[in-house]
Design a protein that fits this description.
Blueprint: H1 2-17, E1 28-31, H2 34-40, H3 55-64, E2 66-67, E3 70-71, E4 73-76, E5 88-91, H4 104-115, E6 119-123, H5 130-139, E7 143-144, E8 179-180, E9 183-184, E10 191-194, E11 200-203, H6 215-226, H7 236-263
Helix pairs in contact: 1-7, 3-6
Length: 269
């Protein structure tokens, strides 16, 4: 009994370090568009195919939405079906030209998901994508301000306290579009938080998450989309060693106390 009083709390502490399963795993839907499928083929979207245009960003998203060896990312063909079963959505860049606009059904489904308060990242682009830009930004209560005069001024964060811009000094956006409305993130209106809960990031340049550009921003976007910082699960060997060490400390304290008590003079007369 005395041994448990000393070593027991150490055992309980070691057990508390073990990872516990979450109630619901985060599921990301990557919505491909006709344009994204044309650019990178049937096996991936624009910026999503393995080894593709935004390979580093892909890895960050896969890691953010992974549980052990399982990556909880599903690629869906369009916005024509309900997205209610997902916890977050990334919408790839749509088609350029007049045919790029969302269909009425797609607009309704996007609006319904946004109204749920779940997070969305959606890509726009420069004036060549004006129909696409105007259609999705209209659903989100914003407007497209892209013109043939592309603003290449370096985008400087308006606030370092915003999670999406933390650690970002400037945003490299080679040929961005423009979003009017919402909560702007940079001096150049290339990114804005939209929606009833500011739960939608409209990013008006796919190149902003291309390759090695803007690594801090890419990390921030993945973290923001999943809704919490990445949690690094301790290795099993680390947990075992830590638990063993805590138990050893408890046993050591128990032995010291036994030795001390046995060496004290008896009070019996």
């Amino acid at each position: 009994m005395r041994l448990f009083r000393v070593a027991g709390p150490a055992c309980l502490l070691a057990m508390s370090i073990l990872p516990s399963p979450t109630a619901a795993q985060q599921q990301l839907a990557v919505v491909r568009t006709r344009w994204s499928k044309q650019v990178s083929g049937p096996t991936g979207g624009y910026g999503w195919a393995t080894g593709g245009y935004t390979y580093g960003f892909n890895n960050l998203l896969n890691h953010a939405f992974s549980t052990g060896a399982s990556v909880n990312v599903t690629v869906v063909d369009n916005l024509a079906s309900s997205l209610a079963g997902y916890s977050a959505v990334l919408v790839e860049l749509g088609d350029f030209g007049p045919e790029g606009a969302l269909s009425p059904v797609e607009a309704v489904n996007l609006a319904a998901f946004v109204a749920s308060g779940k997070r969305v990242v959606i890509f726009g682009e420069n004036f060549l994508w004006n129909s696409w830009n105007a259609s999705f930004l209209g659903v989100l209560g914003a407007s497209n301000c892209s013109s043939s005069t592309i603003n290449t001024t370096p985008a400087v964060p308006l606030s370092q306290s915003q999670p999406l811009t933390a650690g970002v000094t400037t945003l490299a956006a080679p040929a961005p579009g423009c979003v009017a409305g919402g909560s702007q993130l940079f001096t150049n209106p290339v990114a804005s938080l939209l929606g009833p809960s500011q739960n939608v990031l409209a990013l008006m340049d796919i190149d902003a998450v291309g390759g090695s550009r803007n690594p801090e921003f890419q990390q921030n976007v993945a973290t923001w989309l999943v809704g919490h910082p990445f949690v690094v699960t301790p290795e099993p060997t680390t947990i075992v060693l830590l638990g063993t060490g805590l138990i050893a400390i408890g046993l050591g304290r128990y032995r010291v106390r036994r030795t001390y008590r046995s060496s004290r003079p008896s009070r019996d007369l």
